[in-house]
Amino acid sequence: MEAPESRSLPALLAPELRSALLRLSRNERARDLAQRGLRALAGFAKGLKVRYADIQIAYDLEPEAGLADNGDLEQDLPALLEATGQAAKEAGTAVALFIDELQYVEESELAALITALHRCAQRQLPVVLVGAGLPQLRGRMGKAKSYAERLFEFPEVGPLPPQAATLAIIRPAEKANVAYTPEAVAAILTETKGYPYFLQEWGKHAWDAANESPITLADVIAGARTALSALDASFFRVRFDRLTPAEKKYLRAMAELGPGPHRSGDIAERLKRKVTALGPTRNQLIAKGMIWSPNHGDTAFTVPLFDDFMKRIMPGNDWQ
Prior knowledge:
Elements: H1 9-24, H2 31-48, H3 73-91, E1 95-99, H4 107-122, E2 127-131, H5 137-144, H6 148-151, H7 162-174, H8 182-192, H9 196-209, H10 217-233, H11 235-240, H12 245-257, E3 262-263, H13 264-271, H14 275-287, E4 291-292, E5 298-301, H15 306-313
Parallel strand pairs: 1-2
Antiparallel strand pairs: 3-5, 4-5
Helix pairs in contact: 1-2, 1-3, 2-3, 3-4, 4-5, 8-9, 8-10, 9-10, 12-13, 12-15
């Protein structure tokens, strides 16, 4: 699942849990518990329909009175996941929730999800969450429930170290009997800073630019131009187009200072504004996933190489 900004967590979970419970109901041992889970889901959807109008789900069974039907997400979601987990345990399997862009889930909904998973863990039920999100996710989960950092592991996915980044470039090419010169590989690592998606883009465009093996530094330089053009037109531009004029100026000021992270005071000084006056803009950018705060008072881009993009799309000093 992917958590969009415009959809509630109950609306996201309900159809997926229905599918899981229907599969579990085909297991003879778990049939009764899976059907109870479906009754819990029916009560869950009906109870929260007024509060979350975007919930749309077919009811397979009539709700069971008192089962996940209070209309309070922090009470009903734990009951629903517990019923689901009991069915999965009886079937000898597990239910895993994979949710991308988890940082967009509202704090109250995130708190309910953490509570539900905590209950399943306490009852040793096989229900797990594998979530992905921007760096601010850890802080948001800790704010939603103070025990979240004890309940979950938060591995960081960042740039690859040089050895791994090098393998990511040369190994796929070797399978096609194509090589890179050391200078070409070094240039790709320098340009991409080791970020996996950019390694893919630079590798693709260097490949397309080359006429023969080995792929050379000249091929990488030629490919880099098309790689940046492609990123500017899609990956970066989609994010830029979501910004207000004030937010664009804030990011442009950050870009003027370099990749970051930067102190909020330095950004405010660049914009000739007070830090307090820029607080709402900064908060909006964090909510949109454009920036995050690695430490108190620090601000960093969530997307690598975005500082260079801001300089390309807002060149000169007219933005000030």
